[in-house]
């Protein structure tokens, strides 16, 4: 009679347990890598937006032009363009609030172009047809709440000489990007008024 060699039940259970432990460690490590990658992208998006605003304001001051974006064919045609997309237009250097005027032109780029993509922490809320309300960028004057992780808010903050908000002393663009649930888990950049 021939002996058939096989694994015992104990040996099989030990192998299954080892595979289960390795899988649990691998899944946990992978989730950690995913979270770190999302945080890095939020910080990268924050720098990209802050640098875009700063560079465009400097470009306006130096060359008198600024980038904007026509999100409808009618808006593009009203400005002598044939279709939606990026455009270079004259910027405002002379009004009482050139920072606000030019920031408004940049908002069209930030709200409607491919810059405003899905929020990595809430991709299901993204609507390609309405990026302004569903992408990761919003024009807000506040730090994104914990419920808005992954969002970047930029807005103009005015400083006044008096408590009655008379005699504006400065205007600055403040950008905030929330990347975590902690009280201080956000990035801040302040773009000063170059005008």
Written description of the protein model:
This protein has 4 helices and 6 strands. With 195 residues, the protein is an alpha+beta fold. The strands form 2 sheets. A 4-stranded mixed sheet has the order 3-4-5-6. Strands 1-2 form a two-stranded antiparallel sheet.
Quick tags:
195 residues, alpha+beta, four-stranded mixed β-sheet, 22% strand
Structural class computed from helices and strand pairing: alpha+beta
Q: Averaging pLDDT over every residue, what do you get? A: 87
Which percent bin holds the helix content?
40-55%
Overall geometric form:
elongated
Rg, nearest Å: 25 Å
- Counting DSSP H or I runs of 4 or more residues, the number of helices is 4
Uncertain regions spanning at least 5 consecutive residues = none
Q: What about the largest sheet? A: 4 strands, mixed
Sheet-strand content, in percent, reads: 15-25%
Strand/helix succession: HEHEHHEEEE
Distance between the termini: 98 Å
Number of strands: 6
In quaternary terms, these chains amount to: single chain
Strand order of the largest sheet: 3-4-5-6
Domains (count): 1
